[in-house]
Amino acid sequence: MTIQAYESSLAFAKKLDEDDPLRPFRGQFHLPVQKDGTPYLYLCGNSLGLQPKPTRIQIEQELQDWQNYGVEGHFHAKLPWMPYHEFLTEAMAEVVGAKPIEVVVMNTLTVNLHLMMVSFYRPTDKRHKILIEYDAFPSDKYAVASQIRFHGYDPAESLIEMKAREGEECLRMEDIQQVIEEQGDEIALIMFGNPNYYTGQFFNMKQIAEWGHAKGCMVGFDCAHGAGNRPLHLHESGIDFAVWCTYKYLNSGPGSLAGCFVHERHAHDKTMPRFEGWWGHNKETRFGMRDGFEPIPGVEAWQLSNPPILSMAAVKASLDIFAQAGIENLRKKSIQLTGFLEYLVNALKDDRIKIITPTNPDERGCQLSIQVRNADKSLYEQITAKGVIADWREPDVIRVAPVPLYNTFEEVYRFVEILKASLNS
């Protein structure tokens, strides 16, 4: 699918789709349709991914096994429930670029973030600050502020919310480095969203980890908008931990389970403080019931309870598709698909709209955030009425995410035609 230049035509978009080796994967998803039966232009995978067709089959298998075996399904189901979370580990590790010992699917996103901060935010009177983006996702801001208060500190003094420069939307790496250099001795934890949910900016985690660790800081990322969107290379990055949800680009259904990464250098540290539950205990003696807690090596030690099988079945259905497609292959298409969207939007040459997501593909995933000058949401409402499902983020941004698993170049072209017509109406 290598191309030299884009063209603003439907024929060109259709040619790209014809040459797309990943095109068949679109057929593995249910596409929402309008009242007349026409599929919506669904460009909202950054908020909720579409349902894979195998999801129903996967969940019905567990319902059937529950019906047939009752409690014995833990051992005799087609996929026994006792080790069920392990059936997800290798595929998830491949998606996020980690070793199996570093990855587990458990809980939900903010719960996992709190569990990670129990271990990796250990404030002292000298080192008690947390560094995040000013425009971090609200739940992340609430979580870190509550952790600060829980430890007896004041977010007004201990929470560093890093803003972009005046007139800019994205953070500059040199500015992040400067803050770490100047305040690193007081920073206990660096915790950014990657990519940032609002601007779509993707941060160089390896570089930030190196800067942070050089100053004695712990480093973690909320990869809710990164997992399944683009390769993350979590192990190679050297960060201490990461968390992410699975219902956006990982297509596991509304409110589904989350993922967690802890770097293997922490895998065998039994002294690390953590909240403990029986599913993080030694698997061989878990049912001894009277043993003291013995953490499983690796991130599994952070598990609390036995997993919800029906939700995990949905995660597995999606991960099976990712394993077939390959995250690196998806990334290649994503760069082209998002690049095509960027080209078409810029070709409109309309001063009322501006893409605030970085232009460098290395600094973004598939999401483009389109800022609307003097916005009152009316433009978004117009494109919605014409069959587009995207999303609006206050005060003035339409987020559009062409997902390589199920979106097409033709859909991107048709979206921009709708945007153009709405701007001119």
Summarize the structure.
The chain is an alpha/beta fold. It has helices at 10-18, 54-69, 73-76, 86-96, 109-120, 138-150, 155-158, 173-183, 205-214, 234-237, 309-325, 327-347, 378-385, 409-424, and strands at residues 41-42, 103-106, 129-133, 159-162, 187-193, 218-222, 241-245, 258-262, 353-355, 368-372, 388-389, 391-393, 397-400.
- What's the CATH topology label of the largest domain? Aspartate Aminotransferase, domain 2
Gyration radius (Cα, Å) is 22 Å
Write the CATH homologous superfamily of the largest domain: Type I PLP-dependent aspartate aminotransferase-like (Major domain)
Q: Tell me the CATH architecture of the largest domain.
A: 3-Layer(aba) Sandwich
Helical run tally: 14
First-residue to last-residue Cα separation: 35 Å
- The topology string of helices and strands comes to HEHHHEHEHHEHEHEHEEHHEEHEEEH
What is the number of E strands?
A: 13
Q: Count structural domains.
A: 2
- Structural class of the secondary structure composition? alpha/beta
Task: Give the DSSP E fraction (strand runs of 2 or more residues).
Answer: 5-15%
Helical content class = 25-40%
Helix-strand layout with pairing:
Blueprint: H1 10-18, E1 41-42, H2 54-69, H3 73-76, H4 86-96, E2 103-106, H5 109-120, E3 129-133, H6 138-150, H7 155-158, E4 159-162, H8 173-183, E5 187-193, H9 205-214, E6 218-222, H10 234-237, E7 241-245, E8 258-262, H11 309-325, H12 327-347, E9 353-355, E10 368-372, H13 378-385, E11 388-389, E12 391-393, E13 397-400, H14 409-424
Parallel strand pairs: 1-11, 3-4, 3-5, 5-6, 6-7
Antiparallel strand pairs: 2-8, 7-8, 9-10, 10-13, 12-13
